[in-house]
Amino acid sequence: MTNPPMIALQDAIKKYDDGPPALAGVTLSVASGECVAILGHSGSGKSTLLNLIAGLDKPSSGTVTVDGTRVDQLGEAGSAKYRRASIGMIFQFFNLLDDLTVLDNVMVPAQLAGMGKGEAKRRAIELLGSLGIDRHAKAYPQRLSGGQRQRVAVARALMNKPALLLADEPTGALDSSSAEDVRRLLLDLNSEGQTILLVTHDVQLAASTARRTIELVDGAVKRDVVNDGSGAGLAARTPLTRPAGAVG
Ligand SMILES: Nc1ncnc2c1ncn2[C@@H]1O[C@H](COP(=O)(O)OP(=O)(O)OP(=O)(O)O)[C@@H](O)[C@H]1O
Ligand SMILES: [Mg+2]
C-alpha cells in the first residue's frame, strides 16, 4: 500500500463573480517530502491554488485534502487551527509585523498555537540561528535587508513545524544574491524532508529548486513534469499525472 498523498485536489474549481474561473478543475496530488514548483503567468491561478490548500479560501466545487484533512469542509475556526498546525506560508513581501522585533515576529505562530513563551523563544532562537540571522533577533524588520527579512519570514513559517510549506513568489522582491540564498534555504529544507509548494513565474527558479513543476494556464494544469535539474526540465517532459479517466 502506498502512503496517502500530502496534498490531493480533486476537480477543484474556484469561480469569482462572472469572469472565467480562477481555477478551472484542478486535480493533482503531492507526496510528503516533495518540492513542487507551481509555474504560470500572472492571473493563471497560482495564488488561488495556494489559498485553497491553505484553507484561506474555499473551492466553488471539488475537494481539497491536506494531510488527511478535508480542508474545503473546515469552518472558520477549524481552518485557522489547521493553518496554525499544518501550514507555514511565506510571501513575496514578507508580511512581517514592523512594530515587533525579529524574535517576536518569529514567535507569533507558536504563541497563537498555545506554546509557552519560554519554549517558543528557545525554538525561535534556534531557527534564527539555523538560518544565520540570530544576531538580528532584537532588531526590527525595517532595519534588515530584503534577504534577511525573507529569512525571518521563513523562520516564522517553520515555527510550528508545518507539514507543508507554501511559498508564493518568495524571491520576487529580492536581489539575485538574496534570491539565491532563499533558494538554497528551500533546497536545504526540502532535503531534510520538508514538503514545499513554491509558486513562481521564474522557469529557472522552478527548475533549479523543485524536482517537479506544475504549470497552470488559465486555471488549469497545463503540464506536470519532472525537472532534470539542468534548468531544461520543461523541455524534457515526463507527465506525472494520469490522464483523466485512467483507471488503477
Ligand atoms: N478575490 C478575488 N476576487 C475576484 N477575482 C479574483 C480574486 N482573486 C483572484 N481573482 C482572479 O482569479 C484569477 C487568478 O488569480 P491569482 O491571484 O490566483 O493569479 P496568480 O497566478 O497568482 O497571478 P500573479 O502571478 O499575478 O500573482 C485572476 O484572474 C484574478 O483576477
Ligand atoms: Mg499570485
Short description:
The protein has 248 residues and is of the alpha/beta class. The protein is built from seven helices and ten strands.
List the helices and strands and how they pair.
Elements: E1 7-14, E2 23-30, E3 35-39, H1 46-53, E4 61-66, E5 69-70, H2 76-86, E6 87-91, H3 102-112, H4 117-130, H5 146-158, E7 164-168, H6 176-191, E8 195-200, H7 203-209, E9 212-217, E10 220-226
Parallel strand pairs: 3-8, 3-9, 6-7, 7-8
Antiparallel strand pairs: 1-2, 1-4, 4-5, 9-10
Magnesium ion is lined by residues 46-47, 168.
Describe the structure.
With 248 residues, this protein is an alpha/beta fold. It has a single domain (7-226), classed as P-loop containing nucleotide triphosphate hydrolases (Rossmann fold, 3-Layer(aba) Sandwich). Helix content is 32%, strand content 23%. The chain is built from seven helices and ten strands. It has helices spanning 46-53, 76-86, 102-112, 117-130, 146-158, 176-191, 203-209; strands spanning 7-14, 23-30, 35-39, 61-66, 69-70, 87-91, 164-168, 195-200, 212-217, 220-226. Strands 6-7-8-3-9-10 form a six-stranded mixed sheet, sandwiched between helices. Strand 1 and strand 2 (23-30) form a beta hairpin. Helix 3 crosses helix 4 (117-130) and helix 5 (146-158) runs parallel beside helix 6 (176-191). The longest helix is centred in the last third of the chain and has 16 residues, at 176-191. The two termini are 13 Å apart. Mean pLDDT is 90; it is low at 232-248. The site of magnesium ion has 3 residues, from helix 1.
